[in-house]
């Protein structure tokens, strides 16, 4: 059922989409869905049989099957930042309870939160560059979670085997979409046990435990940074996010770039080189890694220090006006290895925001 416009049948929506695309052939699916007041998943579902095939949402089997495709480009985004990385699915695993998954290859590095993954589609469409083939995953609101695009040297036989092996039978355009749960209101600072939060922060041994720490004390992420004290978190001018990327490129300091949504986090590890502005978007346009960052949406930037068994780990964390994490930068590192001196020097040299 069409959640936003429940009275529009799939055939009518398909006709509307075709008309819109004939008028604006370069319009992206995400924006087309917005203009038609539907979700992106519904826009694909109405196209079943027109270059779109619905797949079985069996993540424990489907995700490892992507390894056979060979070189691909993976795309994960939130409202304000798009992360694209080329490489191969390798070392793909899904936990026995089906709620978490990992891809931990050197090039494609993903953290998958599968509880609310809902539907998957294989898409083949014509473009000036030829046939574009992709696998696209959506959540229970019909919002894109993660996309996988085949490349010129991908294995087309493996792609055809995937379509045959995972085709949903019968094909159905019906999506059991439901509204997103309302976000819990942020607690007042006065309700947070700041002394205990700071003490727990000081005792961290693993940066992965940070989320559990702030949950324990009922603090929102940016609220926790604000309350941590300047020893652990300092607010920086937003423009320093661009400066940090430019400095990393100039010095060829290898970094980690985290971009995610509620259901998937995608990570690039390595240097960045080709940085360009395009209007309001700041971009990394490297052969294997692209980043598209809508800078007007970045409302705040923080330098964050978290203790660990490997020493202090320093990050830059950018937030939107509604407190959503847009992008994180770290120095490239592996567990058990201290932070890069070059990254720490780069991050610590950025000036704090004047009061």
What would your notes on this structure say?
The chain has 355 residues and is α+β, with helices and mostly antiparallel strands. It has two domains: 48-89 and 118-166, Heme iron utilization protein-like fold (3-Layer(aba) Sandwich), CATH 3.40.1570.10; 189-348, Heme iron utilization protein-like fold, CATH 3.40.1570. It is built from ten helices and 18 strands. The strands form two sheets. Strands 1-7-8-9-2-3-15-14-13 form a nine-stranded antiparallel sheet. Strands 4-5-6-12-11-18-17-16-10 form a nine-stranded antiparallel sheet, with helices on both faces. Strand 17 and strand 18 form a beta hairpin. It starts with 9 loop residues before the first helix and ends in a 7-residue tail after the last helix. The model is unreliable at 1-7 (pLDDT under 50).
Topology at a glance:
Layout: H1 10-23, H2 29-35, H3 40-45, E1 52-55, H4 59-65, E2 72-77, E3 81-87, E4 92-94, E5 100-104, E6 109-113, E7 117-127, E8 130-139, E9 144-150, H5 156-166, H6 194-202, H7 210-216, H8 221-228, E10 233-236, H9 240-251, E11 255-260, E12 264-270, E13 275-278, E14 281-285, E15 289-294, E16 300-306, E17 313-319, E18 325-331, H10 341-348
